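call fold target=DNA polymerase delta 4, accessory subunit
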Amino acid sequence: MTTKRGLITDSFKVAKKSKKREKQEKSPTPTPSQQDAATAEEEMRKLKQFDLDWRFGPCTGISRLQRWERAKSHGLDPPEEIRELLLETPAYPEYSLSHVT
């Protein structure tokens, strides 16, 4: 009585990905201003200026939009263009999160 020993993976069904799905996963999500690199660079410069301006309070552990809203609620008059920029690009962490260390 000899029993055949197979691999544990032999008992599971093989699932293959479709080629269309692989292409979708590999294509990176474009940044909001990928068409115009100069515009994106200018937007990031403005956001960095906002991060470095201590009049609006500390920026550690808080999103840029939360910081802008906190500054507004305290009457600190943060730039409106920063809020508009942040609301236009809510899904991009490089825009919404501060990178000041």
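return ok
The first helix runs from residue 19 to 26. The CA atoms of residues 5 and 11 lie 11 Å apart.
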